[in-house]
Each structure stands twice: as C-alpha cells, then as structure tokens.
Design a protein that fits this description.
There is one protein chain. The chain is built from no helices and 13 strands. The protein has one domain: Jelly Rolls. It has about 190 residues and is mainly β. The strands form two sheets. A nine-stranded antiparallel sheet has the order 1-2-13-4-9-10-11-6-7, with no helix packed on it. The two termini are about 20 Å apart.
Length: about 190
C-alpha cells in the first residue's frame, strides 16, 4: 500500500487524508481491509462507502473487527454496541443495540437497488487498552422509498488491538456494486 497512496487535500495541510486502499464490490459477501494500521503515521482512519448496493431488501451495512489480521472476526453477541439517531419520512428517533457486529443503518434500511453511503471514522483501533470507536453519518433509501439519514456512534465492547475491518450486508445477500475507500488521518 505504501506505493499507492494519494493525498486528499493539499500536501501542506496537516489534516489531509491519505488514501490507503479501495475495495470494489462485485457480488461480494464481504469487503475486508487488513494490514493498514500504522501508529507512527495515523491517529484514526476514515472508511467511505460510496454507492454500495445490496442484493436483497432490508439489508444494512454491518461491520466486524479482528485483532489477528482478519484470520478470525469477533462475533460474540455482546461484542459491539451501536447507538443510532435516525430520521426518515416523519419518523425521528434513537435506538441502541448490543450485538455481534456494528450496525450502520436500521435492519430495514436499504431497499433492493438503492445505495448505501456512509462516512465512518474509526479511532483507538490499535490500542489494546482502549475500545475501538466508530462515528459517522449514513444515508440510504428504505424499502418504502423513504430517504433514511442516520448518525451512528459505535464502540467495540472488547478491548483489543484491532487491525482489520470487515463490512458485510447485515441480514443476507451480497454487495452487488459500489466501493469502500480507506483513508488514514495523520496524527
């Protein structure tokens, strides 16, 4: 990856994001990022899901973490906590879940043929004494045609030195198209 970096922003801008990689969906059950942690350079990471489409109705974007480079993924029923504030149609609310994966979007968030777009900032990833956290907005269209907007705040319920991230459709199906791009945010 070191030879494939691109600047997003002016090179003199200390807050510029550095592109570390992109995964492109093509009937993909998962999109995974491994071997990207560099504590000397980056304080956090930004994953941007763009026009990500799922093959079934009622699938949400879900995330799992690994501390062994993706050989295994944490899937315990209380491994992650997700708190969401949402608005769609005339519905506004908030909800919290303790589950086996991070949930970005509601269980009925995405309608077949519509895209998921999300900006997810991950912090504390490689700090074994701390919990990995995610914060970011998400937008999609649900099965009823409502535009869904959410602000998601998640954390891992397991303190570990995380070094890999897996994205997958929460209920079933595959990602038929779209991308997730990873950026490092310099310290």
């Amino acid at each position: 990856m070191a030879n494939n970096r691109e600047w997003l922003g002016a090179p003199h801008d200390s807050a510029a994001f550095i592109k570390l990689g992109t995964q492109t969906a093509s009937n993909s059950a998962t999109l995974e990022f491994t071997d990207f942690i560099d504590d000397a350079l980056y304080g956090s990471y930004l994953f941007i899901a763009s026009d990500l489409r799922v093959s079934v109705n009622n699938a949400s974007l879900a995330v799992r973490l690994s501390s062994d480079g993706g050989s295994t993924w944490r899937t315990g029923s209380t491994d992650y906590v997700t708190q969401r504030q949402y608005g769609y149609g005339s519905n506004i609310g908030a909800v919290a879940h303790t589950v086996a994966h991070f949930l970005i979007g509601t269980g009925s968030a995405v309608s077949l043929g519509h895209e998921i777009n999300a900006d997810m900032r991950f912090t504390n990833m490689s700090n074994a004494a701390s919990l990995t956290k995610i914060l970011g907005p998400m937008s999609a269209i649900d099965a009823s045609g409502n535009h869904l907007n959410e602000l998601v705040s998640c954390y891992s319920n397991v303190a570990a030195a995380d070094n890999a991230v897996q994205f997958f459709p929460q209920t079933s199906g595959v990602f038929t198209s779209g991308t997730i791009t990873l950026f490092g945010i310099p310290k």
